[in-house]
From TrEMBL:
Residues 238-247 have a biased composition (Basic and acidic residues). It comes from Phytophthora nicotianae P10297. It comes from the Eukaryota. Residues 212-261 are annotated as: Disordered. This is Uncharacterized protein. Residues 212-227 have a biased composition (Polar residues). Residues 51-86 form a coiled coil. Keywords: Coiled coil.
Length: 261
């Protein structure tokens, strides 16, 4: 992680100049030393005893000069590296200052786009819900109407079956009473007619039970909506009329009178 530091170029330049001056002074010192060594060497040329000492001194001076030059070069390289690092840090900080505003603008744009997309999705969902509710109500009303018509048709069929069964029973009973020749045959015919009437009554009850079970299996909201407004005043649920009930009572009275005789 690069530290965000402030570097003064003037201070860096002053530091580099001081290092260079120290290196120059060291080189001058070495040159003076070498000059003195040369003078000493010239002065010692006439002394054969000091030849070996001069050679060793020159070699040692060369070694010291080489080491000093290497140290000064390393110092100069270190100063140059520090200067380059400072320049790199300054460039990175400048680039960061230029990049941060653009990144902030991009983040704001993304947030605005996301908010717009969410608003669009919300609007579409609301429109779809508003369009689905009327369609659902229409389907429910059509289903209720179909169930109501089916129930009315079933009641009409039951009414027709009940009236036909009562008519057949009355015809058979009158025919058997007219054809009676003996008390035994009369009693047997009456018993048979009573049994057939019981069978017809049980069939009608079974049909009524089946119709009521079908009606209860449907949704209660459908059956509860059936009223006098859906059918005519005299056709509500198509129940048997009062004349059919009076005919049945008259037939029962006739049978009772014949039995009493």
């Amino acid at each position: 992680m690069i530290r965000a530091t402030r570097i003064d170029p003037v201070a860096v330049e002053h530091h580099v100049n001081s290092k260079l001056q120290s290196a120059i002074r060291a080189v001058n010192d070495v040159a003076q030393t070498q000059a003195r060594a040369v003078v000493e060497a010239h002065s010692a040329q006439h002394a054969q005893v000091n030849d070996m000492r001069m050679t060793q001194a020159l070699e040692s001076m060369e070694d010291r000069l080489r080491k000093a030059l290497e140290e000064r070069m390393q110092e100069l390289v270190a100063v140059r590296m520090e200067h380059l690092e400072a320049e790199i840090r300054l460039a990175i900080v400048k680039q960061g200052e230029e990049i941060l505003p653009s990144v902030g603008r991009q983040i704001v744009d993304v947030q605005q786009q996301t908010a717009a997309q969410l608003e669009f999705v919300k609007t579409c969902a609301e429109k779809k819900a508003k369009s689905i509710v009327p369609l659902h109500h229409a389907e429910e009303n059509s289903a209720h109407k179909a169930i109501r018509l089916s129930l009315l048709a079933t009641m009409k069929e039951y009414k027709a079956a009940a009236v036909a069964s009562a008519a057949r029973y009355a015809d058979d009973l009158i025919r058997s009473l007219g054809d009676v020749k003996s008390s035994d045959s009369y009693e047997g015919g009456v018993i048979r007619q009573v049994k057939s009437h019981q069978v017809a009554t049980s069939d009608g009850a079974n049909m009524l039970l089946l119709t009521s079970s079908e009606a209860t299996s449907k949704p209660p909201t459908c059956t509860s909506r059936i009223g006098s407004s859906d059918v005519g005043d005299g056709e509500a649920l198509d129940m048997p009329k009062r004349t059919d009930v009076q005919d049945t009572k008259a037939t029962s009275t006739l049978v009772s009178a014949r039995l009493s005789e």
